[in-house]
Amino acid sequence: MEVQKQKQEEKVDEMRRIVEKQEERIQSLQSNAFKLANFYFVFQGVVLAAISDSPISLTCSQRWFPFTLSFLAGMINLVAMFRIGLKYKKTLSQQYQNNLDYQDALQTLHRLREAPAPGPSTATSNSVEQNKDVFREAKHWLAFLICISVFVAFFCVTLFGCWKIPCLRDECGISLIMKIA
Predict the structure, then answer these.
(1) pTM (predicted TM-score)
(2) Following CA atoms 116, 122, 128, 132 in sequence, which dihedral angle do they give, to the nearest 10 degrees?
(3) Which of 9, 11, 66, 175 would bridge 162 by S-S if both were Cys, CB 3.0 to 4.6 A apart?
(4) Mean pLDDT score of the chain
């Protein structure tokens, strides 16, 4: 009985370390995603500020340069965000399953400590459900798709701005934006 308790304690410790390691990975992925998004937003802000307030006016025929620059930056960041998001979602799912396993191991250890005498165990782990929570998975996918959609929307808005802003000047070089105001 003592050997079984010792093995179960080792299993509980191992599961706890795995869950903690996954929590650190989740925090790292979140941090990387936020840093990447912040760098991207700042970069696009600089590009848009440069083409809207530049002392040297870009003409319509030159709009391809900021558009291409924004497009390349956006695609690279979109792919990177997508990969980070998939890793994040996968790690969350693994952590959830490992948390269930950890709780099950804790309950088994608790039962072993309270067992009055050694004998065949007839208890089953009914209190911890081992099936995947479909609703939780759907929530993770929905959150992932919402984040990617917001990123794609910002990407499209900046591309539109890079394409249209240089053409908002008429032949005299006076900005149409200034005429409206």
Answers:
(1) 0.71
(2) 160
(3) 66
(4) 81
